[in-house]
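Extended Data, panel c. Modelled sequence:
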Amino acid sequence: MSSHAATATIDHHHDPSTSTGIPNKKLLMWAFLASDCMFFGALISTHLIYRLHPPSGGLDPKDIFSIELTSFSTFILLMSSLMMALAVTAIQKGNLKSCRWSLLMTIFFGMIFLGCQVYEFEHFVHAKNMTLSNSLLGSTFYTLTGTHGCHVAIGVLWLSLMYVRSFKVASRPSWFNVQLLHALTLIVVLLLSLKVTLGLVHSLETVTGFGAAIADFFSHQSLYLGGFLLSLWGLFWFARPRGTVQFNEAHAIDVESMGLYWHFVDIVWIVIFTAVYLLEYI
């Protein structure tokens, strides 16, 4: 009964203790995103200006880009935005379990996007011979999309730390070491999953025959695969119930602030996808 009363007193959208009525964390995030708008606006404008006046003999984007792969990664990022919205709604309602699963799915989709970007960059450099310094298209493209990829990576790290934070037990003062190990385990899981996935894609591309490709994958990635499975087991071990946690609907503002950042990153990518990729095919 007391928990229902406490939930009823929480206003997730307004803070009467501030002069603006907006929680300070949310106001600070809006200010940061406003500055980031100008930053990305400058990068996107620079790319478009150079594309309007391309140098003679330069690379043709239609021969470089893979619109199918980029469309897939765009869809994945949009799905991650949906899961982020579900995480915010879940914590506002006090549904911690649903919030954790939504955060994990957001992290999962974010890693898929980063994996697609790493694969795309590697393919452009080795197969298409487009580097950061050998063409104007490469300079503006890698700077713009690489900066956005860094934002996604920061967001995935932030999501991971928020997920680990949701397991902090209220009755244990020495929580730091456990939380730190939990966070490191999750980061190792993410990095090894990216390594294993890219290794599987590389084997399927370079080795003829499905069976031979799988054999090549296991011969080169067995150590990483074993480490991934071991760290995944550790992640489930850290996630086992240990008692009442501190993280509840009162911390919804932290998840909301993170959601604002993640939605902003998604919106910026929609603009980049339109300006950098789709405009080349119009």
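Residues 96-126 form the longest helix (31 residues). This feature is highlighted in the accompanying rendering.
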